[in-house]
Amino acid sequence: MASAPGSRFPRPDESGPADWIDRQRYPLDAPGTPGFDALVEHARAGLAERGACELPGFLRPGATARMAREARAIAPLAHHHRGAATPYLEIPDPAWPEDHPRRRFHPYGLGAVAWDLIPPDHALHRLYLWEPLMDFVAAVLGEPRLFRYADPLGACNVAVMGEGDELEWHFDQTDFVVSIALQDAEEGGDFLYAPLLRRAGDERYDDVVRVLDGDPSPVRRIPMDPGALLLFAGRHSLHRVTPCHGATPRLVALLSYDTKPGTCGSELLQQARYGRVVRPPAAG
Q1: What is the pTM of this model?
Q2: CA-to-CA distance for 214 and 95, rounded, in angstroms?
Q3: Distance between CA 82 and CA 78 in Å, rounded?
Q4: Which class for 65: exposed (0-12), middle (13-18), buried (19 or more C-beta within 10 A)?
């Protein structure tokens, strides 16, 4: 198994997550204040109306530069995988017609640095463990509480996309994703999505097919602005990342939460995404 670079725990006088965030614009550690309530309502409205809420400049410039630098240092540890998948990220039922969107395969390629390879003193590691961030996300989702993933590999990771890597059109298998843009590719790497294209009980296959066939009318682009935090409802919004080009990789931090404790990806998912299987310790 690959090992993370040597690390040290922060000294008491070092800055922490509360210093890295532009809290004047985003007072997420001040629940109950007018600023916090307005921020929550803004994020909720974005998710309800567009399936996404981007908070540009969420990280201060110095914090963004630090996280990007630390991510570049561990990017060589990423497990890279390429293949093809359907927009529904499932093994298709052969009962569907051959031209059905559930049977259409498209290429993907990306790398992922697992949670256990992100050193404890890295800013991303510390931010993920910061309670106010998780509590803010819970407030936006209207949940009384969220829990960090128990997955030793997938709790928080860095997505690394280099030359030729891409993610084709797909729906997520989770209700929401929390990500922080760290570094853009030299060319490509655009995040495109068709907002709220499907809903529970209505798959809208005809609309899905139109997007897969190149109809740009429902598609929006979210800029890859380093330091921005994105809340995204990927289960109902078809989305993709266009092919990346150049020597500079696209780096995005993915922070995983769930409404119930103990969530862990399957062994199959761990093997595919991280190239190994590590299960959480048994409870008790």
Answers
A1: 0.92
A2: 25
A3: 13
A4: middle
pLDDT 10s digits, 140-196: 999 999 999 999 999 999 999 999 999 999 999 888 999 999 999 999 999 999 999
Question: If DSSP codes are grouped into helix, strand and coil, which group holds residue 175?
Answer: coil
The C-alpha atoms of residue 90 and residue 206 are separated, in whole angstroms, by 19
Task: For residue 14, give both structure tokens.
Answer: 């070092």
- Quote the CA–CA distance of 40 and 34 in Å, as a whole number: 10
Determine how many CB atoms are found less than 10 A away from the CB of residue 128: 25
DSSP count for the chain of H helices, then E strands = 7, 15
Please state, as a whole number, how many other Cβ atoms lie within 10 Å of the Cβ of residue 110. Answer: 22
Q: Which domains does the chain have, with CATH numbers?
A: 26-274 (2.60.120.620)
E-assigned strand segments in the chain: 52-55, 79-85, 106-113, 147-148, 156-161, 166-170, 177-183, 187-188, 191-194, 220-222, 229-232, 238-241, 244-245, 250-255, 257-258
Q: What are 186's two structure tokens?
A: 């030299």
Judge contact between 240 and 120, C-beta under 8 A. Answer: no
Measure the CA–CA gap between 75 and 127, rounded to whole angstroms. 18
Residue type, 258: D
The Cα angle at residue 252 between residues 250 and 256, in degrees rounded to 5: 155
Q: Round to whole Å and give the CA distance between 32 and 150.
A: 29
